[in-house]
Amino acid sequence: MAGRRYAPRTAPPQTRTTVRGGETRVPRPGRAAGAGPEAAVTRTYTPPAPLHLGLTLGPLRRGPADPAFRVTPDGSVWRVSRTPLGPATLRVTQRAEDRVEASAWGPGAPWFLEQLPALLGELDDPAPFEPRHRLVAHTARRRPGLRLTRTGLVLESLIPSVLEQKVTTDEAYRAWRLLLTRYGVPAPGPAGAELRMRVFPEPRAWSLIPSWEWHRAGVDNKRASTILRAVQVARRLEEAAHMDPPAARARLELVPGIGPWTSAETVQRTNGAPDEVTTGDLHLPGIIGHALAGHRDATDDDMLELLAPYAGQRHRAARLILLSGVSPARRQPKMRRVNIAEW
Hints:
This protein has helices spanning 16-20, 53-57, 109-114, 116-119, 134-142, 155-163, 169-183, 190-193, 203-207, 211-216, 221-232, 234-238, 245-252, 260-270, 284-293, 300-307, 314-323, and strands spanning 41-45, 69-71, 76-83, 86-96, 99-105, 185-186, 198-199. The protein is of the alpha+beta class. A hairpin with a 2-residue loop joins β3 and β4 (86-96).
């Protein structure tokens, strides 16, 4: 294995880089809690391989105040979605390496629990992955529970990815939080009453958001128009979750305003795509170039060349590189944070 020498004795501190790699800190579970009188269904799941709950579900979190994703002090991960059967809340707690307890509320609860294995990465096969760099090998050993999630729900990953186009993550997270809080509905079960979580709005609700509310959330006309075009063909886009990742990306990119960056960020979550690496990103090529070759000014072409030995598993390799915590020293920010709501 070639590459930079990297042999830290402890895990790196959590940074923006590791958070982008999907790192979400989940507290050690406390005493098992009952599902509550409103719980529709429960399930105990036995992972077939080591599972790290925070790393697997972490990419679904859109900022620390995401109204659709929470981590509570009792070690539970809460997720709210609009499933094909309707709104649903899912609470997942990992009691041991071989036991995950899940409870679900709402009309979509049966669907949520049926999809639980895919959500927790059971359909992901890391066996073909072979580290080619010391950094990647070390991180893979230190993160054995990393699995690629597969949500099977396209719009709820596509729309926040569109909001993240060409802006800082803080701006995108703010827009996502404001729009879900205002136009989402309260989550079923205790997530709505106690955690104030919100269910992803249905397509028609997105289409009825007035222009001034997009502006107030800091979303420019280009991104808002892309979302409005996407929700008009929501049913066709949702079909992409059942396609091969390249075909899924092609389906998404038929919508004007959705390009390779957005389609990759979406399909990575909806389809559990191990090879769909993100291109067109402001920071990712430099992070990967620096980590693997000491080249902080790497381009997309340079990044793809460095990841070529991981063909078929390039997204997994990129996530492990991000989770290593190795990144170039920060320079003056290239992207200025703005708030168009003040214009």
